């Protein structure tokens, strides 16, 4: 499982802060996240389909 620390996100240049895909809903609530989505599926293939359908 991949985990993103907020201290890392805070150091990103503004042009890299575009969209965050994560299952961690609390991470999506932080002010640094401008656009985010929380996939509902557990299976990575289903997550990919879900994201492609949405965007």
Describe the protein:
With 55 residues, the chain is mainly alpha-helical. It has one domain. Helices cover 36% and strands 7% of the residues. The protein has three helices and two strands. Strands 1-2 form a two-stranded parallel ribbon. The chain is globular. About 9% of the residues have low confidence.
Task: Please outline the helices and strands.
Blueprint: H1 6-10, E1 20-21, H2 25-28, E2 36-37, H3 44-54
Parallel strand pairs: 1-2
Tag the structure with descriptive keywords.
single chain; 55 residues; mainly alpha; two-stranded parallel ribbon; 3 helices; globular
Question: What is the residue-averaged pLDDT?
Answer: 76
Give the end-to-end Cα distance, rounded to a whole number of Å.
23 Å
Which secondary-structure class do the elements indicate? mainly alpha
The total domain count is 1
Please mark out the parts with pLDDT under 50 across 5 or more consecutive residues, or reply none: 4-8
Largest sheet data: 2 strands, parallel
- Annotation field: number of helices: 3
Largest sheet, spatial ordering of strands: 1-2
Percentage beta strand: 5-15%
What is the ordering of alpha helices and beta strands? HEHEH
Number of strands: 2
- Which descriptor suits the 3D outline? globular
Question: What is the CA-based Rg, rounded?
Answer: 12 Å
- Bin the helical content: 25-40%
């Amino acid at each position: 499982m991949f985990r993103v620390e907020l201290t890392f996100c805070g150091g990103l240049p503004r042009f890299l802060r575009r969209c965050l895909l994560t299952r961690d809903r609390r991470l999506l609530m932080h002010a640094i996240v401008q656009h985010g989505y929380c996939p509902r599926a557990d299976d990575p293939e289903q997550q990919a389909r879900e994201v492609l359908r949405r965007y």
